[in-house]
Amino acid sequence: MSVAKKEYKRVTVKSLVEMKQNGEKISMLTAYDYSMAKIVDSANVDVILVGDSASNVIAGHETTLPITLDQMIYHASSVVRAAKRALIIVDIPFGSYQSDSKEALRSAIRIMKESGAHAVKVEGGAEIKESVKRIIGAGIPVMGHLGLTPQSIYKFGTYTVRAKEEQEAQKLKEDAKMLEKLGCFGIVLEKIPAKLAKEVAESVSIPIIGIGAGNGVDGQVLVVHDLLGMTHEFNPRFLRRYMNLYEDMGNAISQYVDDVKQRDFPNEEEQY
Ligand code: KIV
């Protein structure tokens, strides 16, 4: 079904709710630096997520846990300088909001003040209720994140599909309702059964953005390096690769090495 798209000069949290109401699917992608954010924004992606996946993709850590608040602010401020249209959401990193709600608010304020981003994202449901309440109370838009929440990877033990069992599915549905009631403007659902994700999307009025959560939700998010095929070791079922940049970039760089070795680069026209 094709849906008439409203033009947005700048996407806001209100635009996302409007898109859901109008049946327009929301596109969201990660970016962590100025150059990539410029490309993503120029391609009319609605939301740029400065994800703590930067810890994996940019810094090469095994999990998202090591990235710091200062590092997230650095990434976010580079993205803010690039993006003119997209709404920019920043992950509050592990350890910066779980211990108490006052620390959570301080972290969110630092992100908003020092990076110029528009909203923050936090992982979890009832466990972080007070933090979500306090951040929203200060006027900062909050996006939730349920299902596979990578900051809790050591609790889960694996990156497999979450909420397949009734008890976990029930808690997820209750958490989604609770986040809506607290005033979150949207929720990411990661790696859960498509049927459950659709049920959640239909039960709340705020947009549900899926990653590995099927097509019955209000929008999709991917890590941009995965979509472009730069991270070739990562092959989950939900990932659609639109390019194979790992290979293409490798070939281009090998060609450059050859050209230097063969004294072919630079040629007459490439010098002063
Ligand atoms: O950090 C991230 O990139 C994310 C997305 C996978 C939703 O949280």
From TrEMBL:
The active site is at residue 190. GO terms for cellular component: cytoplasm. It holds the Pfam family Pantoate_transf. It is an enzyme of class 2 (transferase). The keyword Methyltransferase applies. Mg(2+) binds at residues 52, 91, 123. SUPFAM superfamilies: Phosphoenolpyruvate/pyruvate domain. Keywords: Cytoplasm, Magnesium, Metal-binding, Methyltransferase, Pantothenate biosynthesis, Transferase. GO terms for molecular function: 3-methyl-2-oxobutanoate hydroxymethyltransferase activity; magnesium ion binding; methyltransferase activity. It is found in: Cytoplasm. 3-methyl-2-oxobutanoate binds at residues 52-53, 91, 121. It catalyses: (6R)-5,10-methylene-5,6,7,8-tetrahydrofolate + 3-methyl-2-oxobutanoate + H2O = 2-dehydropantoate + (6S)-5,6,7,8-tetrahydrofolate. One of its GO terms (biological process) is pantothenate biosynthetic process. Pathway: Cofactor biosynthesis; (R)-pantothenate biosynthesis; (R)-pantoate from 3-methyl-2-oxobutanoate: step 1/2. Its cofactor is Mg(2+). Homodecamer; pentamer of dimers. Belongs to the PanB family. HAMAP family: PanB. This is 3-methyl-2-oxobutanoate hydroxymethyltransferase.
